[in-house]
Amino acid sequence: MGKIRLIVLDVLKPHTPSLIDLSSALSDIEGIEGVDSTVTEIDKSVETVKITLVGEDIDYEKIKGVIEKMAGSIHSVDKVSAGSILVKEASTPQDR
Questions:
Q1: Cis omega (within 30 of 0) on the bond before 93?
Q2: Domain spans of the chain?
Q3: Which of 6, 1, 26, 7 is nearest to 85 (CA)?
Q4: Which fold has domain 4-85?
């Protein structure tokens, strides 16, 4: 099976732990080389976060475990890139 090199997740998390703590914990997972986290929505007790993870061989189950251990949940997997290289997404006429 091809190695996952990039994954974008839509995550729901409580305000605590902080986005910094969650991002740091995710970056500690073996195979993860970079993490980008952006809050997209804030509610009274939760935040919706877009998390992009890049690495050589990303283990989705480990990511899911860290997020759940920190009281978060994955709403959706929004993008995945797999294989020996990262492929740039093709642009469409609407993107130009």
A1: no
A2: 4-85
A3: 6
A4: Alpha-Beta Plaits (3.30.70)
Q: Quick count: other Cβ atoms within 10 Å of Cβ 22?
A: 22
E strand or H helix at 79: strand 73-82
Residue 58 · residue 32 · CB < 8 Å:
yes
pTM of the model: 0.88
Three-class SS of 11-74: EEEECCCCHHHHHHHHHCCCCEEEEEEEEEEECCCEEEEEEEEEECCCCHHHHHHHHHHCCCEE
**Is the confidence at residue 62, as pLDDT, over 70?**
yes
96 pLDDT tier (thresholds 50, 70, 90): low
Mean pLDDT within 19-40: 97
Token pair, residue 96, equals 């130009």
